[in-house]
Structure formats: structure tokens, C-alpha cells
Amino acid sequence: MPTWRLPDRIGWRDHIIGAALGIAYVVWLLNTAPSLGFPRDEGVYFRAGESYVRWWRLWLSTPVEALKPSAIDGAWSVNSEHPPLMKTLFGVSWWFLHEQLHVFKDATTAFRFPGMASAALAIWTTYIFGARAYSRSAGLVGACLLGLMPRIFFHAHLACFDVPITGMWILCVYIHWRAQRERSIVLAIATGVVFGLCLATKHNAWMLPAACIPHAFFVQRKEIWAGLRSGCLSVPASVVAMVILGPLVLYALWPHLWNDPLGRASAYMQFHLNHEYYNIEFLGKNYFSPPSPKSYLPVMVLATVPTISLALAAVGMGDRARVGAIRLAGWLRTRVHFTQGDGVGVDPAETDLLLALSFAVAVGPFFLPKTPIFGGTKHWLPAYPVLAMFAGHGFTLVRQRMHDVLGPWIERSAGRMGRWGADAVLALSVLVGPLAVTAHSHPFGLSCYVPLVGGTAGGASLGLNRQFWGFTTQSAAAEYLNARAPRGATVFIHDTTWDSWARMQQEGRVRADLRAVGSPSEADFSLVQHELHMNEVDYSAWVAVGTDAPAYVVQQDGVPIVSIYARR
Amino acid sequence: MNGRYPYLKSVGRWSFALVPLLGLVEIGAHFIEIHRRVPEADWVAARLFVTSRSTPEDLVAFAPTWADPLGRMYFGPAVATVAREGRPDEARFPRAYEVSLRGAHLPALADWTREDVSRFGGVTVTTLRNPAPVSILEDLVSLVGAGSPRIRVSRVDGNRESECSYGHGSVQSGGLGYGPAIPGNRFSCPGGGFVGVSVVADLDYVARQCIFAPPSGGGVLRLRFSEVAFGDMLRGHHTLYVEAERGKTGAPVSLAFKTDSTPLGTVFHRDGDGWKPFGFDTGQLKGQRADLIVDISSSGDRRTYCFEAITEGKASAP
Hints:
The complex is a heterodimer.
Chain A: H1 12-32, H2 40-61, H3 63-66, H4 69-76, H5 85-100, H6 107-133, H7 136-147, H8 150-156, H9 162-182, H10 185-199, H11 209-219, H12 221-229, H13 237-253, H14 261-273, E1 280-282, E2 285-287, H15 296-304, H16 307-337, H17 351-363, H18 384-441, H19 455-462, H20 473-484, E3 490-492, H21 498-506, E4 515-517, E5 525-529, H22 535-545, E6 552-556, E7 559-566
Parallel strand pairs in A: 3-4, 3-5
Antiparallel strand pairs in A: 1-2, 5-7, 6-7
Helix pairs in contact in A: 1-6, 1-7, 2-4, 2-5, 2-21, 5-6, 6-7, 6-9, 6-18, 7-18, 8-18, 9-10, 9-11, 10-13, 11-17, 16-18
Chain B: H1 6-13, H2 18-34, H3 40-53, E1 59-63, H4 68-75, H5 82-85, E2 95-101, E3 113-120, E4 123-129, E5 136-139, H6 140-145, E6 151-157, E7 160-168, E8 185-188, E9 194-201, E10 207-212, E11 220-229, E12 233-240, H7 242-245, E13 253-258, E14 263-269, E15 276-281, E16 289-298, E17 305-312
Parallel strand pairs in B: 1-2
Antiparallel strand pairs in B: 2-4, 3-4, 5-17, 6-7, 6-11, 7-8, 8-9, 9-10, 10-17, 11-16, 12-15, 12-17, 13-14, 13-16
């Protein structure tokens, strides 16, 4: 009987597995994307993508014209507060996959495709990193659990930057880790280039060196110390590459900087260092200025990441912490007794340290009182691949323990198939829950809270934010307006931007004859997307429309998401 | 220790089973949760029950607060009235029908006496009796809202008092940050300013139906209510629209009550006060009718100010 078994060494077959996981995820996203409306920011990024790709086409056809300052500023001043990579890719995807090749019928699906691909990148990298660092099952389950986080699934649909930076971040950490492990100059250079791509993706990439640089110095501490004793300063190659190549790649990809590099880089930094505080509800209170609550991140992680994933992550982290503690104790003994260490737990690449630093750097700022929290969970998504890898490692440990206890009995009663069956049942027990919660969350991913806190209703009862950015207008149209509004009716579109509304009409998601207006007083139908601070708009609609009774309420699990008022 | 307690070792060996068990519990909890949506029929049955029993003086309220839009939709504006939804407090209602989902209750009704609990599938209607209801003699909000001939509004600038005319215009409203809707039925003042009944989001984003009377340009908005029946107390609340006061940078707003012969008292609303109660002893006017003059003023801009007040008789026995 032929057997199919992967070699112990992680290699190209594993890349096929990682890629397959990523592709499957993209297929899922493409299938669900048409029913997800456009958030505020997306409409702006669509426009920026079109503008940027227009400039690149000009550069390809008439470079002299394209490089004139007026041409650069005309194209690249659109949304210049965010770096260019993803918006450029959104535009390139739109141009080739929609306008030229007609792969995607909808322009917006083409815009969104690079974001989805970056989710695939995150899953692929998590698999391969987890497989190399811990075990194949750790990589596999970790990658699956990453994709089965409802907030990851929601943001992975969007032409935004939060999932892309998650993918880029873990890729950069992975390549940096490989560079340290293999002391490869090529991988060190690749680290610098990928770090530059991170910088060109989202501003939180500037925090990434806080994970990689201390790690590199710790890994190479003996060489650095030996160099210092001989009077020469040795700096890890990947650190040099990050410091030099990172900003260079950002500069090369962002023509907006070319006309006034220092001034515009400074303006970019200042924008994010002094970002205004938007409203966000947390435990029934609306936060709109510092200090931010320190409990925000832990509570939101507990409430939005499937509990089984967190439990497995705790098992995995606990095990790695135990190994680290044993190693630390051994090292201390060598200091006290002047003996040679036994080498227990020694990892030349210091994997656990790197992952711990990567996680800490991604979440750390959200414990600072001045860090805005308005983005909900999306701003710390780069921490989740590491969380998922530890969860995968936790799964491996549980699986080992299961086989230790049940293995002989299973072997006796069902042979090798029995072992596989037990593995499959165990895997299903940890994956089906997150899959069910994630699949059910669509298209209200931001309203989704895990069963631990009582689901969507539990989150609402706790006073946790139900949505932002006004993307649920599409659901209001699908469930009510498209069928019930008279021809030419006016609609107050609340938090939805004009760009997003226009896109939804162009693609037939919202009836084309409906006319958006800017106030409930002008509207035949007024939408109110329920967020705590949006209550003021709700009350305003009562007065303007002449009734406090909605004609229809869009719900998720019986929890109001959008109220629709009809003028009496 | 495991040697003395071998069962501990056995339990430890099986600890891995907690993980699949937790996974199964999460799956089960998810499926239970998503099937707890209350069907429309339950809401309709609850509405029929409440409408058959309640009187206009009763409170009908929904719990938890996130269920409020559903309550308003299913119960309709005749039951879930703006006055009930934007109530100043619960004290003025002798009885309440609390319509709740998932065992939620309104904290404000926690001390009320429970008279009845009726269940309609996923909806529970609890009938509660107010242990200390307030007896209302006059409600200034309803006088302004109805455009009663018993109210006159003027704007006072120094020694000059200009009449503000009552009219029926269109409502002015906007999106986030616009402020409360400016009602269509309102008194409009020469030189700026208006008075009408609107619904304001207070500092806690709770709906408050009140007399929207933003002072502007340093002038005084004067509301004269004629032939007001007085009792033991004049009570009320005042607030600013949440975004106007949450930054705590604005000038205070002064609210002064008097009759032609007697000053009753002045209160100030300072940013951050939220929905702030006030009260004046009117025992000396009890049983009488007199004109009540309300002066509103502030030195600041964007004072989107709103207040409500009642004259109340003796609190009736529970």
C-alpha cells in the first residue's frame, strides 16, 4: 500500500501547503466580498489607487512628464498621509485585473484583491514559520486559527492596510529570523527590503525594529562582544539592512516624498504622532481623547479572538516560557558555580525571544495612555500571527499528550488510521468553533464577539463597539431600501462616504436611482448606524423624520446594526 | 505529592482533554447564541399586552439599551413615544412596563415594586410600581412643544427686548457633529437664537427631550409662561449637547427662574455637568397661578443648551 509522508525537513512541499491555505482563504474572501459594503476609508483608497496607477502609466509612457513636480504632486497628494504600497497595488490590480483583463467583474473586487492576497501571505508565512520554528502541525493549525479570527476575516476583505501590514510584519520577522539562523547576507538584505515594504504599507512598521534589532544583537552577542574586545564594532547585517534599505525602499516607492523629502516625511510623521482621537465605545463609555483605558486591548482580545485559539496560545506560550525559564535557571547556575552550561533549551536563533518581542511590540503601544484606540482591534493585528503560532504549538503539545495517553489504546483498536482519526477529531474540535464564529460573522465582522462574552448580543450588552466606518449601508440596501424605497427616493447615508455610496451604486449593490443626502431633514429614508456616539444622529433623525420608530432594523443575531427611518 | 494522591497524576494525564472539551463548549455556545434572536411574534404579543394595560402616564421602556431600536420599531411611536424615550427621569411615571430581552433590567427601576412578570417567548414584560411618583402640575416642555399661547419668547439685549415669533419651518439637522436637530416648530428671534423642543444627546449619549434654547451673542433668551400652576417644587434638568460640553472648554450657561414678583433661583450649567438636575422650593406660591419667567444666558459660543422643568405638587403616597 503506497504511503504519503512529508519529509521531516521543511521544504518546498511546505510552501505548497502554505500557499494552498492562502489560496483557499482568498477564494473564501472573494466569495463573500460582494456582500460587504465599503467602509469610509476604502472609498478614499480606491480613489488614491486610481490616481497612483495613472501616474505610473504616465511614467511608463512619458517619464519626463511624469517626473515633473506638478505631475507627481497632482497624483500623489491624494491621501498622502498614508504610505503608498498597498494603494499602488490596489490601483495596479484594478487596472490590470478589472480594466484590462476583466478577471474581476467589479472594480472594487479588483481593488480589494491585493488586501486579500496579503491575508494569504500572512497565513502562508505563519504556516511556514510555525512549521520551521516548532512543528508542521503547529504551523498548520496556527495558520488556520489565524484565518479563523473574525476580525482578521473582516479586515482581510478590505482595500485597507491592516491585514497587509500583518502579512508584511510576520514576513519581515520570518526573514529576519532566517537571516539570524543562517547568518545569510542574502537573507539579511531581504530583511531590509521587506522592512522597506512594511514601511511602505503602514506606519506601525516603524515599530518593527524594536523587535528585530534587540533580537539580532542578542543572537549575535558573542560575536559582538568578541569584536568589541578586539576593538571593532560589529553590527548584525540584517540590522544594517533594515536601517539603510528600509527607508530607501520607502522613498523609492513613494514619489510624494521626492519633491520635498524631509518636509514631507516630517509631515507624515507628525500626522500620525498627533493623530486626532475618533470616538470609540468601550464598556459602555465613549472614548474620544486620552487617556485610553489600559484594559482595552486585553478585553477586546478576549472578546474577539475565539477562546479555543487563546487557550491553545496560552498552552503554547506557557510551554515556551517554561523552556525559557529552565534555560535561564541553567545560565544562572553557570554564573554562580562557574560551570559549563548543559545547553538545555538553547536555540541559536532565539526564536521564542523574537516571537515574544514581535508580539510585545505589536501590542505594547496600546497600553500607553496616549495611544488612540479608535481602530478597535485592527491596529494590533500584526500580533496575531505570533499568537496563532503559539496556538499551533499548543495544539502540538496537546496532540502529543493525547497520543501519550490514548496512543496505545488507539493503536490496538484502530491502528494507524485510528491515530489519524484521533488527530482529525482533535483538530476539528479546535477549528470548527472558530470557523463557525468567523463564517457567521459576515458581513458584520465588527459586531462579532465570541461566545465567551455572549456573542454579538453579549458584546452589545457589555457596551463594546458594534461597527465603524458606515460600511453597513449596503446591508440596509440589500435588506430594505432596494426593495422598498420609491424610485428616486432620498437617503441620508449617515457615516458612509459619498465615494463609497457611489461605488455601491455603480456596482448595483445599491439601487442607482436612490439619491444620497447629507442630513435626515432632506431624506425620505434616514440610516442610523448604531454606535454609541452616533446616538446623537439617531435622536436628530427622530426630530427630522417625525417619528422615533424605525421602519426597519438591520440586525445581527437580534442586535440592531442599522435603523432605517422612513419619513411619515 | 502525586505519590500520595495518585488520582492527581491521573487527572493531570487527562488534562489534554480540556482543549477539545473547550472547543466543543465554544461551538455549542455559538450555536445557542445565534439562535436566541427574538422572533417578531414575541414582540407583537408583548406589544398587545402592554397596549391593553398601559395608560399615557405610564412608562414603557426597553432593556437592554441596545434593544431600544427594536422596541421602538415593534411597539411603534404611539407606545414608544419620544416623551417616553427622551424622558428626563423615571420619577414622574407612576408605573412602568419594562420590556426586556435576555433577563436584562433597567438600573433606574431597580428600587421599584414588581407587580407582575409576563413572558412572551423571548420578551419579558415586567410591571413595576413607582414607590414615590411625582405629581406634575405643569410640564414646560409640553407647553413649548405644543406652541401653546401661554408661552412667549423674547430676546433681551441690554434694555431692549425683542419678541421671537413662533412659526412652522422645516427641521434643520445634519450628521455627526451637527448638534441636535433644530425643530421645525420654533420661536425664531431677531438677531439670532431660537427656542423649540428637540431631542438632545446628553453627556452619556442618552436621549433627552427638552426645550432647545441656545443662548447666542451675549443676549438673554427669555421664556414667559403665563398662568403656571405652582406646587411645592419647581424641578428640572439641563444639559448641553454632548460634543459642546465634553471638551470642557465652554462658558457656563445661566438659567434663572422668577415670577414677576419673586426670584425663584438661578442655576448654572458648566461643561461636564451632563444631564444635571435642579430644583427650587416654591412653597410660597403653592396653590397659586403666576407667570413664570425663564432667562437663559451665556457669554460663550455654541452653547447648544437644552432644559426641561416641571412644577410639582406634593409627592403622592406610594
